[in-house]
Amino acid sequence: MAAKVFVITGPSGVGKGTLIRLLRERVAGLALSTSATTRGPREGEQDGRDYHFLSRDEFARRADANEFLEHAAYSGNRYGTLRSEVERRLASGESVVLEIEVQGARQVRAAMPEAVLVFIAPPDPAALRRRLEGRGTDDPKAISERLRTAELELDAQQEFQHVVVNDELEKAVDELEAIVRAELCP
Fold this sequence. Notes:
With 186 residues, the protein is an alpha/beta fold.
């Protein structure tokens, strides 16, 4: 079984992180890539575990040096996937899951056409607002900005190989698991 890259994308608040956590409990051997970001850590987040927290200057230096597989600006911050981390895991035989935004997923598709791209969609836009507000991690202005971005991202879902609607959590995890298993064992 060859190692693969799985890109899980969709708008902020759609439940990507929860779905990936449950997927990794069900499918052994999936490594989660740790993204780099210029945003500050949220309560409980640790550098190197949740994100690689970089200064804006360090992020720009690494982007200029082509050290990212993908990188994007999102809600006033920069996010990216370090090429070295993905390549190291693939070389060791591990499949890698990337939890990234739509613009980053497009870059991965261009750089790695063999990557498996899955778009996570909400049942409706109102569900996103409820989830973002319920998270309690963003102020109202940030939530409005994320929702404006989400509208554009939802229009892009037809670009992706697979679309999973996260309406009922167990059903969505089942669909995601079936996609991953089918790709790992064709």
